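Letters spell out the chain; the tokens describe the backbone. To illustrate:

===
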Amino acid sequence: MLALIAGTGDLPPALVARLTEPPLICAMRGFEPSLKPDITFRMEHLGSFLADLRARGVTQICMAGAVRRPQIDPAQIDAATMPLVPKVQAALTQGDDGALRIIIAIMEEHGFRVMAAHEIAPDLLPQPGVRTKLGPASDHTNDAFAGESCVVAMGLADTGQACVVLNGDVVVREDAQGTDAMLQKLCAPYDENSKSFDWATDLSTDLRKMVKSWLVDKPDTTIDATGGILFKAPKPKQDQRADLPLIGLRTVMMAAEAGLDGIVIEAGGVMVLDLPTVRKVLDAQGMFLWVRPRGGA
């Protein structure tokens, strides 16, 4: 039996839709997904939670969706979790990849097999190559090399998985707030009367409403990255069973609003939600999606 520890975002529902048997939906308190959880747990009760999963017949665990580091209340730590406290404390002092490695190790020590999201949904990893009508130009190829170098350096420091590059220079780097927050720095404040999203009339009314809701909170000043690329890749030697990079429609919309020419993702290392719609939006904007093998080519 599979337990899906679901965070926020669209990935958990996408995985459930692909499963032939419904998983046990679990959620950490404070990070409830759009799915209805069967179990909600606290990190202070991790030991009891894992014991409960075993009692329910769970043998496999998949972690998917966004979850930020919880605040730990020492007074809430239960007896079953007390032996895990040193490891949990160590996890909370690590970067994201280091923390997830420790949590995965705890789960494995309790007898669970930890599955990657793309094991459940391999179609979320697009095939290498240009997936849109337009492809990158030569300057975009150079930008991709610069982006790869930047993400490698960020990954070694366990600080991020994405950056925006223009003319060979890294304009902005992802931090703990994520890719969409990084792209917000490049987007002008949303104007109710703006025509910048007239292209979206080819899409649904609901989609236009979503775009508006995504773009209401913008900084007063922005960074101009017009003509640049978004580059996204996993961290070097990242444990891909959790926190594998992901792009979806929201990321694509924000990249379009930022004036980027395209998106470059590492082949086999970045998932794409709803690729057909993503391609439609990028084609409508004259942008490209390049699924690039590590090192180029």
Q: What stands out?
A: DSSP finds ten helices and 13 strands in the chain.
